[in-house]
């Protein structure tokens, strides 16, 4: 006499659920009759049968299945609400061998994460998405979900869902199947044995697609929540098969996996050096020696610079040129513009931070070392943010000399007037850059550095206006005119 | 020469059952019924009626618990027994 286990506990689960807190280590935490348990068993069986335990990652959603990593004997990760497709995208792309399962409920997928799933589906990410649709928010106690049926009573729709006020149930399978990229979309029901067997095949099909790297598969599982829907097992199955299936028809919505070639994605680049070379093809990547990086005392501490003026004065470009100077010398820099919706007029300002160390906040709101003001209102607004011994540089064509500046150091020049003489008001920012050079030479640079320093500015101008040779020359000219005319206000 | 006979058996892990009654509804041969005693989890576990099982596995797939039900096939080969 020989005994054989025909159907029994799958080895796709852990033998005992040691990760689960509390004394119960053999059962799952789900309520009696919950559809999650049925689906878990089907997934575990498939993972075991396909031999993909050591490369499968199940993404647990926010919802009842948030603890699914207690159970599956494979990798698991919990992610923010609705963001499983985004994290799954990363997992699937970081290592193309990964089999990524995105296990999501209707609150997770159809509500807060609906855009995520649509975008991931549209990109055709290599994900197997198992979408549990039980027409209600289970974990939080039975509120209306996007998939709640019309007329269905829930905690938040005690009169029944009214389509005139709460809208219609969201048909996820139909929506995803309408996109071009997904290869397989099917809706199944975890109700009768017959339907569960169909679901089993659908799950295996979706995982097969993932293994063959065919792309995005979604299996929507109509699933029972007997506790929140207040139904017995029999009523639950009748609800799924008669009421839910009427609104959410079962069946295959899309299956084009056979006609698709396996996904070929470009290998990711993870080496920081290579990333840097790609992002900053300019000299930076060559590596800058420590002495070159530190031409002066100016960058001994973090420098926080605020530039403000009217839109169109070139405030943002001036900040960008200052940031570029730091960038070309391999400093950490940040450039944070802030401006109104209008292209000309209005006010504009930007924050520039240059530092030897990683920059915390790119926003310069106080403790400003250098304030560059191009109009009166900007000066009035930002002068209180300048440090006690900070430096103020302003355009005296537009701005009155401020009073009561204490120990602050003042530099000025008629930038707008000089720029107009040069032929275009747009050169005002390069003229101001000349004033910055004068200020730096006066305050920070030793004689050896001064000779070399103009080149730093020229390179920054060239970098900002690259491929526009005449513009570069005009701005460099403006820079030198600014350098000649800038002066420190002595008191 | 007699053919080998196959019989099937549902083995219930009493303390893993949550008493949801899904298997009782799913069984085509009335092999299972709800019990009256509460198990360690505090649920009335499913129990056997004595009707013969046909080994379809429906109860296993409809059960939401991983190991509450196991379906076993017994094969009796008269020749090897002799």
TrEMBL record, chain A:
Keyword hit for Metal-binding: no
Among Gene3D superfamilies, the record links this protein to: 3.40.50.970, Pyruvate-ferredoxin oxidoreductase, PFOR, domain III
Task: Pinpoint the Thiamine pyrophosphate enzyme TPP-binding domain residues.
Answer: 71-221
What are the protein's UniProt keywords?
Oxidoreductase
Query: Which InterPro entries does this entry report, sorted A to Z?
Result: 2-oxoacid:Fd_oxidoreductase, Pyrv/ketoisovalerate_OxRed_cat, Pyrv_flavodox_OxRed_cen, THDP-binding, TPP_enzyme_TPP-bd
Q: Which Pfam families match?
A: POR, TPP_enzyme_C
A GO BP entry is: cellular respiration
Ranges where the Pyruvate/ketoisovalerate oxidoreductase catalytic domain occurs: 311-482
Instruction: Identify the SUPFAM superfamilies for this entry.
Output: Pyruvate-ferredoxin oxidoreductase, PFOR, domain III (SSF53323), Thiamin diphosphate-binding fold (THDP-binding) (SSF52518)
**What does the record give under GO molecular function?**
oxidoreductase activity, acting on the aldehyde or oxo group of donors, iron-sulfur protein as acceptor; thiamine pyrophosphate binding
Return the protein name: 2-oxoisovalerate ferredoxin oxidoreductase beta subunit
User: Which organism was this protein described from?
Assistant: Victivallis vadensis
Automatic annotation (TrEMBL), chain B:
All copies of the 4Fe-4S ferredoxin-type domain together span: 8-37, 44-74
User: What superkingdom heads the lineage?
Assistant: Bacteria
Q: Does the keyword Ligase apply?
A: no
UniProt GO MF annotations: iron-sulfur cluster binding; metal ion binding
Output the InterPro entries linked to this UniProt entry.
4Fe4S_Fe-S-bd (IPR017896), 4Fe4S_Fe_S_CS (IPR017900)
Organism of provenance: Victivallis vadensis
Q: Which UniProt keywords apply?
A: Iron, Iron-sulfur, Metal-binding
- Pfam families, per the entry: Fer4_7
The name under which this protein is listed is: 2-oxoglutarate ferredoxin oxidoreductase subunit delta/2-oxoisovalerate ferredoxin oxidoreductase delta subunit
Tell whether Metal-binding is among the UniProt keywords: yes
The signal sequence is: none
Which lineage?
Bacteria, Pseudomonadati, Lentisphaerota, Lentisphaeria, Victivallales
């Amino acid at each position: 006499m020989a005994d054989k286990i025909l159907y029994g506990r799958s080895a796709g689960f852990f033998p005992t659920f040691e990760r689960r807190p509390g004394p119960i280590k053999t059962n799952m935490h789900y309520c009696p009759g919950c559809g999650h348990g049925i689906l878990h068993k089907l997934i575990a069986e498939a993972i075991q049968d396909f031999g993909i335990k050591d490369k499968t990652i199940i993404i647990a959603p926010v919802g009842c299945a948030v603890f699914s990593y207690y159970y599956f004997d494979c990798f698991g990760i919990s992610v923010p609400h609705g963001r499983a497709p985004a994290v799954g995208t990363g997992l699937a792309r970081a290592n193309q061998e990964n089999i990524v399962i995105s296990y999501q409920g209707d609150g997770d997928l159809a509500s807060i994460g609906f855009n995520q799933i649509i975008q991931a589906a549209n990109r055709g990410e290599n994900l197997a998405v198992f979408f549990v649709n039980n027409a209600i928010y289970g974990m939080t106690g039975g509120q209306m979900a996007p998939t709640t049926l019309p007329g269905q009573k829930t905690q938040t729709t005690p009169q029944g869902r009214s389509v005139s006020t709460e809208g219609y149930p969201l048909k996820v399978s139909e929506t995803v199947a309408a996109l071009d990229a997904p290869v397989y979309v099917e809706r199944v029901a975890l109700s009768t044995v017959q339907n569960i067997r169909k679901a089993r095949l659908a799950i295996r099909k979706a995982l097969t697609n993932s293994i063959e790297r065919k792309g995005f598969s979604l299996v929507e599982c109509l699933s029972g929540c007997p506790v929140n829907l207040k139904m017995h097992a029999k009523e639950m199955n009748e609800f799924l098969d008669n009421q839910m299936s009427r609104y959410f028809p079962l069946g295959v919505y899309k299956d084009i996996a056979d006609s698709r070639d396996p996904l070929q994605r470009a290998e990711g680049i993870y080496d920081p050096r290579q990333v840097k070379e790609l992002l900053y093809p300019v000299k930076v990547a060559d590596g800058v020696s420590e002495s070159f990086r530190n031409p002066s005392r100016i960058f001994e501490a973090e420098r926080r610079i605020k530039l403000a003026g009217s839109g169109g004065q070139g405030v943002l470009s001036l900040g960008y040129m200052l940031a570029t100077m730091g960038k070309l010398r391999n400093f950490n820099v940040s450039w944070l513009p802030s401006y109104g919706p209008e292209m000309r007029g209005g006010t504009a300002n930007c924050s520039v931070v240059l530092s030897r160390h990683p920059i915390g906040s790119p926003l310069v709101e106080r403790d400003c070392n250098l304030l560059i003001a191009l109009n009166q209102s900007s000066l009035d607004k930002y002068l209180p943010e300048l440090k006690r011994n900070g430096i103020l540089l302003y355009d005296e064509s537009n701005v009155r000399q401020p009073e009561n500046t204490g120990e602050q150091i003042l530099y000025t020049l008629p930038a707008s007037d000089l720029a107009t003489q040069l032929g275009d008001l747009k050169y005002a920012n390069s003229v101001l850059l000349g004033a910055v050079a004068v200020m730096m030479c006066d305050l920070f640079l030793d004689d050896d550095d001064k000779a070399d320093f103009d080149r730093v500015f020229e390179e920054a101008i060239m970098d900002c206006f690259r491929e526009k040779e005449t513009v570069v020359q005009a701005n460099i000219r403006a820079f030198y005119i600014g350098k000649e005319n800038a002066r420190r206000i002595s008191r | 020469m007699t053919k080998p006979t196959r019989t099937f058996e549902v083995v219930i892990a009493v303390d893993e059952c949550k008493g949801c009654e899904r298997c009782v509804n799913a069984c085509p041969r009335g092999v299972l019924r709800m019990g009256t005693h509460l198990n360690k989890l505090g649920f009335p576990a499913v129990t056997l009626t004595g009707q013969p099982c046909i080994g379809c596995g429906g109860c296993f797939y409809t059960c939401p618990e991983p190991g509450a039900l196991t379906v076993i096939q017994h094969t009796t080969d008269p020749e090897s027994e002799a």
